[in-house]
Amino acid sequence: MLRMGAFIKNIVQKSIFLHILFWALSYYFLLHHFSISGERSIVDYIFTTLFHLSLISAVYINLYFLIPRFLNKQHSWKYVIGLILLYGVFYGIHIFTFDILSDLVFPGYYLIAFYDHVELFKYFVVYIGITTLFILSKSWFELIESRKELAEKETEMVQNELKALRAQINPHFLFNSLNSIYSLTLNKKENAPQVILKLSDVLRYMIYESNESFVDLGKELVFIENYIDLQKLRTKDAEAVNFKVDGVIEGQKVVPLIFIVLIENAFKHGMKGDTKNQYVHIQFAVEKDKLELIVENNAGIIDDVEDERFKGLGLENVKRRLDLLYRDRYRLDIDHSENSFTVKLAITL
Amino acid sequence: MKTKYLIPILVVLITAQSCTIFSLNPLYTEEDLMEVPDLVGTWEEPDEHEYVSIELLQNNKYLFRYMEDLRKDGTFQEVDTVSYEAGFLEVGNHFFADLYPYYHDEGSDESEYLFRNFIPTHSILKIVKEGNELQLYLFNFDRLQELFEQNRIRIKHQMFDDYIVITASTEELQKFIEKYADDPKAFEDPAIFRKIE
Predict the structure, then answer these.
(1) Shortest Cα–Cα distance, A57 to chain B (Å)
(2) Given Cys at both, which of A170, A250, A263, B51 links B67, Cβ 3.0 to 4.6 Å?
(3) CB–CB of A110 and B147 under 8 A?
């Protein structure tokens, strides 16, 4: 059954089949339309055949010359002039067909051309109009198809970038966290198992739970809180790290791992530098479907040796994903002064 | 008042033939009509004692009267006169007259109700004028009937036993006549008249 469907679809997609079908239907309807008496006689068949010569000529000149050369290139006025000239050609072929060709090909038959311009023009308009619309609708469907393919590719790209982001976050954070845990266990600290659990939760979320295009905002915030707790282990002044969530977060969905890049940057730039007055303030505010994140940190010096090729890649990655997934529903402001670095992200969820 | 509808029997009288061809629409448009001063006058067909009189009415329309001298003494009897409003025009390479029943008030009105049931039609004559001679050609009914029956003509028409009524528009009729008039079998032998006035 599926094969049959694919077979029919394949045939229908063949333009030559559609052309034959169109002209067959045209012949059928015009034969009945032109038939003088109730019965179709040989003279009606001949007349309908000859009448199609001018129609077919006009339609294909329009489809294969005027549309590609003028309409597709948005030269509208040239296209209109072309159509006017085409009507002249159409009329000339029509008269030639019935005044000369019909006498040569069908001697002994008396076939009369349409001499009423208005009536002949109606046929011209209908055929040129219908066939032009067919072509435009075909182009429209092709455009829809290509947009769909583009959207699929963009989605695929977003997924790939998300994977790349995970790979980018993981190594440093993982090794640093493991170092911290090593230190805690070495000193037989009581909170060591709890820290291991937090790291486990962070990794589980990053590896398994953030694969969807959108995740629960609550889960994302738990992940961020765990991440911040792990980062605090490596800071000299844990009090300098402030994390706050305002508003109702239940039922809200968000693209995963967007915020973490901004927060990771804050720890990388702020808490790792040599300057005094280190701080990282992270504040989420949710009101109805509006979410605002403000990440502020002191402007420090990065002590991580980051590969030049990947510098700023995280932020660019975030911008790109925001563009793809939130389009015009987000605003990202970055304010970099001498002493502070502030990122404000507003999203309509 | 009597309105007399004169059915176009001229062709019947001229050819003594019972079958002919009529058209619901005229062969001409107002723009096609020509002045024909050379045709104005009285024309005689000596063998049959038949006469044709042509005189200007208005706007290139002419009164075309067919008369038969029953008394054979050169005087015309009113009762044997058939009158038409005629328009002359060229179609293709040929010259034609379109004859349409001409109404005039006379006689009793007893047949008025009867004539209301008639639809006046146009008759078409091909005309050739050579010097003092006027040749009137009728369409060859048998030839046209044969072509219609063989479906070799595509023009709106209605066929009856003794006549064919073409119902096509003037434009289509002109185009058909233009093509068909070149057929050597298209017309009967002419009735030849000579000018006497």
Answers:
(1) 23
(2) B51
(3) yes
User: In this structure, is residue B4 part of a structural domain?
Assistant: no
Among A111, A115, A116, the residue with its CB nearest the CB of B154 is A111
Averaged confidence pLDDT in chain A: 83
pLDDT in tens, B88-136: 999 998 999 999 988 765 555 656 666 677 888 999 999 999 988 999 9
Tell me if B2 is assigned to some domain: no
Only one residue has tokens 């002359």, namely B88
Q: Considering chain A, tell me which residue range(s) the CATH 3.30.565.10 domain(s) occupy.
A: 148-348
Q: Which CATH number applies to A148-348: 3.30.1780.10, 3.10.310.30, 3.30.565.10, 3.30.950.10? A: 3.30.565.10
Provide the number of structural domains found in chain B.
Answer: 1
